[in-house]
Amino acid sequence: MPGNSDDFAIPVLGPCTIQSPLSLSEVMGDLIPNFVEEDERVLLNAVVRDGRVDTSRSFELAGPRRNIYFDPPKTRAGIVTCGGLCPGINDVVKTLVNELYRYGIASVTGFTFGYAGLIPGGPSPVVLTPEVVSDWNLHGGSMLGSSRGPQDPAVMVDTLQRMSINILFAVGGDGTMRGARAIWEEATRRGYGLAVVGVPKTIDNDIPYITRTFGFETAVSRAAEAIRSALVEARGAPRGIGLVKLMGRYSGYIAAYASLAVGDVDLVLVPEVPFTLEGLFAQISDILERQGYCMIVAAEGAGQDLFPEDDIQYDASGNRKLKDIGLFLKERIVARFTEEKSINLKHIDPGYIIRAAVPTPNDAVFCHELGEYAVHAAMAGRTGLVVGYWNDHFTHVPLVSATSRRKIIDPDGALWRSVLQMSGQPATF
Amino acid sequence: MPGNSDDFAIPVLGPCTIQSPLSLSEVMGDLIPNFVEEDERVLLNAVVRDGRVDTSRSFELAGPRRNIYFDPPKTRAGIVTCGGLCPGINDVVKTLVNELYRYGIASVTGFTFGYAGLIPGGPSPVVLTPEVVSDWNLHGGSMLGSSRGPQDPAVMVDTLQRMSINILFAVGGDGTMRGARAIWEEATRRGYGLAVVGVPKTIDNDIPYITRTFGFETAVSRAAEAIRSALVEARGAPRGIGLVKLMGRYSGYIAAYASLAVGDVDLVLVPEVPFTLEGLFAQISDILERQGYCMIVAAEGAGQDLFPEDDIQYDASGNRKLKDIGLFLKERIVARFTEEKSINLKHIDPGYIIRAAVPTPNDAVFCHELGEYAVHAAMAGRTGLVVGYWNDHFTHVPLVSATSRRKIIDPDGALWRSVLQMSGQPATF
Amino acid sequence: MPGNSDDFAIPVLGPCTIQSPLSLSEVMGDLIPNFVEEDERVLLNAVVRDGRVDTSRSFELAGPRRNIYFDPPKTRAGIVTCGGLCPGINDVVKTLVNELYRYGIASVTGFTFGYAGLIPGGPSPVVLTPEVVSDWNLHGGSMLGSSRGPQDPAVMVDTLQRMSINILFAVGGDGTMRGARAIWEEATRRGYGLAVVGVPKTIDNDIPYITRTFGFETAVSRAAEAIRSALVEARGAPRGIGLVKLMGRYSGYIAAYASLAVGDVDLVLVPEVPFTLEGLFAQISDILERQGYCMIVAAEGAGQDLFPEDDIQYDASGNRKLKDIGLFLKERIVARFTEEKSINLKHIDPGYIIRAAVPTPNDAVFCHELGEYAVHAAMAGRTGLVVGYWNDHFTHVPLVSATSRRKIIDPDGALWRSVLQMSGQPATF
Amino acid sequence: MPGNSDDFAIPVLGPCTIQSPLSLSEVMGDLIPNFVEEDERVLLNAVVRDGRVDTSRSFELAGPRRNIYFDPPKTRAGIVTCGGLCPGINDVVKTLVNELYRYGIASVTGFTFGYAGLIPGGPSPVVLTPEVVSDWNLHGGSMLGSSRGPQDPAVMVDTLQRMSINILFAVGGDGTMRGARAIWEEATRRGYGLAVVGVPKTIDNDIPYITRTFGFETAVSRAAEAIRSALVEARGAPRGIGLVKLMGRYSGYIAAYASLAVGDVDLVLVPEVPFTLEGLFAQISDILERQGYCMIVAAEGAGQDLFPEDDIQYDASGNRKLKDIGLFLKERIVARFTEEKSINLKHIDPGYIIRAAVPTPNDAVFCHELGEYAVHAAMAGRTGLVVGYWNDHFTHVPLVSATSRRKIIDPDGALWRSVLQMSGQPATF
């Protein structure tokens, strides 16, 4: 097992004895881009404190290796996209296909409608070639289709083995990565040398060890538009209140960044920072008095503790179902203020409009890079990993680490500080 | 005296003895964002090679300090924007003003039309308040106006002293930063405790020690649109050739990223990688034969060595004037191919359309953060610096370091590797 | 007295004896644009049937007159914007102000927050000059603010008289135009020579005698985006159903045009064409079977007869409150289909995001023209009218006619024919 | 020969004896859209002057007929797109294909790269089905490809006959329509019953009897962006001059509408209104003095008489080659002003960026309608015509009339009046 860190060691299927077909170099200064060296890693923590650096934890650097594990003409890959839609899925898939063909791989199979497409009797797979995917990046959503929910790992591995698939790319979120891990573990148990490489997808940007997830920037762009709309409404009416509910079940990144992008938000509510209704009312009251209107942005996971305890529901997987904080706040604010002095509250829940977008150019570049690095990792025999991005480098992150916890906004940190500085809201209320 | 340390040491005007008026905390876990610790730094190089990290060079971490140098009610700030337009200038200025008012500063003066506004008889300055700048972020360009060219530092410092300005923010590029350095050195010589803080602006993204400069992403977005247009033209005609000239005098970042964003570019020409005309013709010929059309993107600084030596001109400052590589390639390609078999070449030079854009939401957030950190640096008595962004943290970079060289694409590195993988072009031709 | 002619006669305050200060001409071919002739009219119906044209009804042509009624230096104008927001309000107001200043008018007052701003104790008016409004077109919504609900005409006329206002421009919808009419009738009763000119605003495009209302095109643009998002969702999931609810209380224009713009909508539901739930279910079932997904667009006024009779509510003005057809259909479709075979329904209600938009360039031109013609009408002493657009010309439409009924989609006509051809849906189900 | 007007009579291939397969009705009020009546026409001039209407000239109303000429299962159609790119070509083609399939036609052939695709040895045709074209509307340009230049009508008709094509749709401009006319005349001469139906494409909007051509609105949108960019540049520099060159060889519609859309243009130069250089300089001088910056928009055909006579060139077809008025004005203005007081002129020539755009939603609807009406016309045996839009109705316009002259801005009319009112420029200078 390679990797020199306890935490972020990446499993490798076997020795890399095949020479890479890519036209890269190992020489500096020859104007030919270089292969990545096997011993390059990226620090987890680049901050020096009191002159000391914590060098104990680092990630394997992603990138093409001089020697690879799989012999391309004898290698078959499969791609599956799962979970909710997110801008950029098709861009990732397009790049996966193109890069696999650059390596000269034998075939690429697209499983349709998520893990359901890996089950006998499920939706039929499609053959993917550079021609087939050439315009996929013009579309939002997933051209392969997606679905939610787990499937039996053993059955899925049966399918993969039956099709002689050597590499499986899974584009998806938390559940998808747990599924990928189950597939990988099942394959490992069988001694079936399957490379399982994840491209982490979560519009909420809540996966650890990846600075931002693909689609997040695009989501922020569209969310900012929704905030601008609500701001226009708030300013256009006497005692206007704009209220926008944005994605963010556990992490308020979209709410935070979109609010910073617009810059004229008065109250940003995120799951990471609790608040009381009375505190909120007092804030709104002050702001209306001072400014004539009030602009509020709430992540969907914010204020979940405000709902009555006996009202809590759990879904099939045992996850607590989120209550709709947007409608809740709308009702409570209207009820609270109408009794004293009329207000005009406009509530916007942009939801699907955000996630169905085509990625922004910057996000498209990021998708391209993620797809490319995922292929490099797989060809070099890495498995049980996702592609990460950390301290300005693409990295390999073990599936186990990537699914271990959620990345959340640190209320003590720089992002939340910027939000409070911009909004002028108190730290707690 | 202005410092010039290898370790990116930042000059400080004096001891920080005033308590910051910002409502921040020093306690972890209290849900109140924290001040930055004085001893926190960010590594220049977060890559571990052979288990070793180079800890010798690091940047001071940017952010609000518990104790500051300037007493806000007795402090006056000035802002100047210089050089070519770039998306986000107004966003930076708006945040500077808002953040200065949050500190409770006495006044903010906006100098108009660049350094010319610091010269007696030049354009008149304006008073900046949060109300004045509240809608500036809806505008492209610079609401303060801009101009090029140096002014006498002594005269500018006279003006600043006459107006009792304690802090000068300079938003601009290379020349602007050299001007800021001259002002700071002149002030230092006089013993005039002026904080000079730069916000580096270069649409080309060629400033060292800052992962990306503000406006760059927006520029890439618009450049990608231009490439898409040319691609549509190239595909719409028999033997169509699309040729887009993009900004990038010394560094091909816009050309590289915008090409990756579109993903269907065949040849990317940048200043960092030389090429021959005959090699280019051979490439085009092959691509037309294989694909029916050809898409070329050229940074304006690419191929400058292809122009006849005696044709080279220098501007007043002694800088070599760039020849128009777009028109040059257009003429040469048309001349070369028309003789054998007709082609349809469409040349697009989007130029000013790119730089006059309003920033994308993501860029707007970045502008906001840069403005905020610039104010924190100034209030803490830092001077002779620019705000940087490196390894996922905002940093302080000495003016001297930021103007010491240009950041260019490393032909051996990851970005250029991705470009070549995408385009399929050979490393050299 | 307020006129009420079948032939769209426009009341005039008195003889036009002042020469227009505009630099226009009455000569053809002199390269100077011409004044409008007093005897030019535009046919209501330009269709020839069996060789016959109905010439009995026509509109007065809008435009600048050689001789005007008001003496500009002695004339004061007021502007009020009422009702729900709509793209382009600020563009109209900006042009009104600019054009009034071109005539050399004494002053322009902006009443804030709708008719409430015309009531003593209400929001304060603002002085409007070309400088003040110069950037208003960069903003969505109404910079003057808006409000709903009627105010006492006598009190409003008191205010106007007290301020010596000669011309009142009212930008608003149905209710606003009824209010404008009441003001005009009250002024007429008092012998107070007030020109009341309306600029009809309704995002639903349901005002008669105006081909399209301002903001409508912009609304269609944004609505089309919402449909595209839902389409992406519908295609991205097995048996996916996209359901978009759009504005359109009485008229399905936004739903019809936005569906045509996207071109891949299967079912378009509008208030003008009733349908049954069972018919709808049968359609959906067929479409899912045939195509795998189904895209539905519903105007908010569609299917109101499907709600239980005893569930109907009326608002203060006696108008029937619309039920939420989007949520209703969502629930019913999910209930109906889930029992037989799982579906994935995604419901989008873009609402405020649509109406807060900045107008598209084409809409901006239209706003500009409407504002200009409104000023020409007022200066020529026309009153009790709105500016219309019909058969490619701007016209004068009596307030009485413009508020007499709603424009709706003709199910026998060309627009609905195009919708059915595109969608493939049967005429009735 | 049908048609009751001398001028706008539409040739018909023969009696319409086949019942239309479309599910339309002839009954009013049955909620089923109606067929068009054969005797419905649209007046050329809907203006009443002195109570009189000119009923002598009118257009046949476009739309589906109860009885058609072609028997769908025995009918083959071809589509060709020619000339410069324009937003919406693919939308038109997509609708043509879809509507032809709704009629149940036997096959649709797409000729590639313009009329060259109709010549033996030219580019190969493709089979068009609804599946093939389903995503074409997401692309700018022409998926069929385009080319310029005439081909021998006899050879093209040979090809059409050989392929048993009954209907040819030609999407293109002036030259294309002349080609279509030549094909139709050649077919008529041979007694070959070919329906030739044109969809007029000209981004300049200069085809008579069609209120606007498809793509024009989209072009105005993008042109407005270019103007905004130049305005930002002009305002951002001392004595800044923004100069934008836009399309418009003979007609200044894009320049006029885009300037109105932005609303802050000082000088609009169009081919229809001559000007002198000295007059222009005087205007610029005044505007700079008064306002500090100056914004100029020029259509490419403006000021062509300012070039030296002996400098005029003609192309192969004998058309005068346009000189580049943008570069010319740039040079002259810089030369003229630099001698007295420095200016900052920024010149933008957005060219291909404009024409390669995907159509705006409103334009997409228009393309859809044009495609639909073109099919209805062809199926009803109409030939030698283009689809027009006039006085709010779609019409049939003889090819001869549509190619007889160019539509230009009337300097005496309403559009130019609005432009002058907005810009404040004098009528002549």
Task: Characterize the structure shown.
Four copies of one chain form a homotetramer. By secondary structure, chain A is of the alpha/beta class. The first copy, chain A, folds into two domains: 18-213 and 359-402, Rossmann fold; 216-356, Phosphofructokinase domain (Rossmann fold, 3-Layer(aba) Sandwich), CATH 3.40.50. Chain A is 32% helix and 17% strand. Chain A has eleven helices and 16 strands. Chain A has helices at residues 89-103, 153-162, 174-190, 216-235, 253-262, 277-291, 325-338, 352-355, 361-379, 399-402, 414-423, and strands at 18-19, 40-43, 47-49, 58-61, 67-68, 76-81, 107-110, 126-127, 167-172, 195-200, 240-246, 267-269, 293-299, 344-348, 385-390, 393-398. Chain A has a nine-stranded mixed beta sheet, sandwiched between helices. In chain A, α1 links the parallel β6 (76-81) and β7 (107-110). In chain A, α2 packs across α3. The N and C termini of chain A lie far apart (51 Å). The interface between A and C is medium-sized, with 31 and 32 residues.
Number of strands of chain A: 16
User: What CATH architecture label of the largest domain in chain A applies?
Assistant: 3-Layer(aba) Sandwich
Mean pLDDT of chain A: 94
> How much of the sequence of chain A is in beta strands?
15-25%
Order of helices and strands of chain A: EEEEEEHEEHEHEHEHEHEHEHHEEHH
